[in-house]
Write a structure and sequence with these properties.
eight-stranded parallel sheet; about 45% helix; single chain
């Protein structure tokens, strides 16, 4: 590890910055991990897009449909592919607590920079804040690596700003990807933004969050590589302009992205999110496995693929 457990918060506040993607997992025609393709995508995001970090194999990466051996393999591919040139945040959540600890220790051992863990799922009974706190505390006490919390509604509830502030007192809880309403985001920043990284993952909010609200990192979803390409890097461009205080140029670049945002939104099939994103990135020159997804997800039809390809070609990305 690049830091001691006691220094995890300070290290993240210093180094967890900029634009971070959330990886997708390309499959081969027989639905195995396309290892070469995954490695190509990591290098593409470093060399072509200059991304600062990658949230590896989280919900967008289809980790729910993988064996533990496959999940570990993807972590290793990411760390080895990054070669220290991009930070790696490994998603180690699982319904089984001991599996979370096993995956987290593995990520720590192979040199991942941080791990991401989602708020735990409760079955039948409503969640309790005490149960959530003790869950993260139990994990944190057994590992050294910095834990980046994912606060989302997949499990039927959001953690409150007060609970997140309590989690921030745990030694190696270093940040939160907070998928919440503006009021809750603001309250979370006020409660614990001085001690840990608080990220609204929405690209469309990134400029105001970065320039005005002090958000230091956009963590993380496919937008940084779906809305950019070898030819057009408008998210990076407006971020750099804002960092220099040139807000007029930052806003010009931000506005130029709007047709790209709309093009992606218009072809996004609500029930085929992963497949759409994979095929979109394939049209940009990444490896998308022809949009293949594992069951129970459903793949794009030929007509839907044609619409995605036409949408990409209608933008300045290609």
């Amino acid at each position: 590890m690049k830091y001691e457990k006691a220094d995890a918060k300070a290290y993240a506040k210093q180094n967890m910055r900029g634009l971070w993607g959330g990886s997708l997992t390309p499959w081969t025609p027989d639905y195995r991990i396309d290892e070469d393709g995954f490695g190509f995508n990591i290098r593409y995001c470093i060399e072509q897009l200059q991304l600062d970090g990658m949230y590896v194999n989280a919900l967008q990466g289809e980790s729910l449909y993988q064996t533990l051996a496959e999940r570990k393999r993807i972590f290793r591919l990411a760390v080895e592919g990054a070669k220290g040139q991009m930070a790696i945040l490994a998603y180690t959540s699982d319904p089984a607590l001991e599996t979370v600890i096993d995956l987290t220790r593995y990520a720590e051992d192979i040199g991942a920079d941080y791990v991401g863990i989602v708020n735990p799922k409760f079955y039948l009974n409503p969640h309790t804040d005490e149960g959530v706190f003790q869950y993260f505390k139990h994990i944190a006490e057994r590992v050294k690596i910095g834990i980046f919390v994912l606060n989302q509604m997949e499990h039927g509830y959001l953690m409150s700003p007060a609970l997140l502030a309590r989690l921030a007192t745990i030694e190696n809880v270093i940040g939160v990807k907070n998928i919440a309403l503006h009021r809750e985001l603001l309250m979370t920043r006020m409660a614990c933004g001085e001690t840990m990284v608080v990220s609204d993952s929405s690209e469309s909010n990134w400029l105001i969050n970065f320039a005005v609200r002090g958000q230091q990192a956009l963590i993380a979803d496919p937008d940084p590589y779906c809305l950019q390409s070898r030819k057009s890097k408008l998210v990076k461009q407006y971020t750099e302009y804002a960092a220099k205080g040139d807000f007029n140029k930052a806003m010009e670049a931000y506005k130029r992205l709007e047709p790209i945002r709309r093009a992606l939104l218009e072809v996004m099939v609500p029930t085929k999110n992963h497949s759409t994103l994979k095929y979109w990135t394939q049209c940009l020159g990444m490896v998308g496995g022809d949009g293949r997804v594992r069951l129970p997800q459903v793949e794009l039809t030929a007509g839907e693929k044609a619409a995605v390809k036409a949408a990409v070609e209608s933008t300045e990305l290609v």
